[in-house]
Amino acid sequence: MTDLADSIESMHQLATGWRAIVLDREPDADVRDLPGIAVRWADCPFAFWNCITFTEVGADTVLIKQRLHQAADIMRSKKHPGFLWIFEGLLDEEAIAALGPAAERAGFEHAFPGTGMAGNLLPLPEPTHPDLAFVRVTTDEHLEAYADLNSRAYGMALEDGRNGLVGSTLWKNQVYAYLGMRNGVPVTCAAAMEVDGRLFVVLVATHPDWERKGYGEAVTRKALHEGTQATGLIRATLHATVAGAPVYPRIGFKANSPMHFFSLKD
């Protein structure tokens, strides 16, 4: 049974963290808190920066059907596609069971699953990996490499990822973002940012040619270590894909709410 408080925390981390990220990328972005719906939409080519999530606790089937149609209408009004993020832990049991068919009727298709995760992490030791050297992201060249790793990992166009990150003041100055370099070549990346008294891990990726070597875990530990050193925070949160979910418990994270990412049908 999902702990409700953890599910609420996970949703708030998304809504709060994405507000800063989206406004950094596009000052005129659509950032609104509507009844039951948080809109965080940069309307840029990088789809992860175009986000809607539901915020009500204990939403029933009737309400979820209403919110799905509202979200679809908002997304259809945008130039660029993005994702609707839904946290199962905020829904009642009947709404969870009805979610898939209701989303399809509203015009959505299931993009991929995920899970919210959090943990009270003791200060992590300085991480090492025999193959890697870690470099903090401080330049646009670093951001381009970071963007390309995410684009390759998630099957996006390189130019779309670069549009989402290159030039960002936030990422170069306030986010603890790191590249893992193998023989001088970026092969993995992770970032942690301070969000409401927690470290929020975002955009972890490893080049597809270098997966299953512990690189993603190592660079995530580096981002968290440096974030904790700088802020003193010990609680961290993240939203994991299926591929990443097995890695994070080794660092100290525990799963909370299952998540669903939906996109509009073509």
Report on the structure:
With 266 residues, this protein is an alpha+beta fold. Helices cover 36% and strands 31% of the residues. Helix 2 (61-76) runs parallel beside helix 3 and helix 4 (140-154) crosses helix 5. The two termini are 35 Å apart. The mean pLDDT is 96.
Helical percentage: 25-40%
Helices and strands: which structural class? alpha+beta
H/I helix tally = 7
Can you write the helix and strand succession as a string? HEEEHEHEEHHHEEEHEE
Read across the widest sheet, the strand sequence of neighbours is: 1-2-3-4-11-5-10-9-8-7-6
Silhouette: globular
What does the radius of gyration come to? 18 Å
Distance between the first and last residues' Cα: 35 Å
- Strand share of the residues? 25-35%
Low-pLDDT residue spans: none
Mean pLDDT: 96
Q: Report the sheet with the most strands, covering strand number, pairing sense and barrel closure.
A: 11 strands, mixed
Question: How do the helices and strands line up, and which of them pair or pack?
Answer:
Elements: H1 4-25, E1 30-34, E2 37-41, E3 50-54, H2 61-76, E4 83-87, H3 93-105, E5 108-120, E6 133-136, H4 140-154, H5 158-165, H6 169-173, E7 176-182, E8 185-195, E9 198-206, H7 215-231, E10 235-241, E11 254-264
Parallel strand pairs: 3-4, 9-10
Antiparallel strand pairs: 1-2, 2-3, 4-11, 5-10, 5-11, 6-7, 7-8, 8-9
Helix pairs in contact: 2-3, 4-5
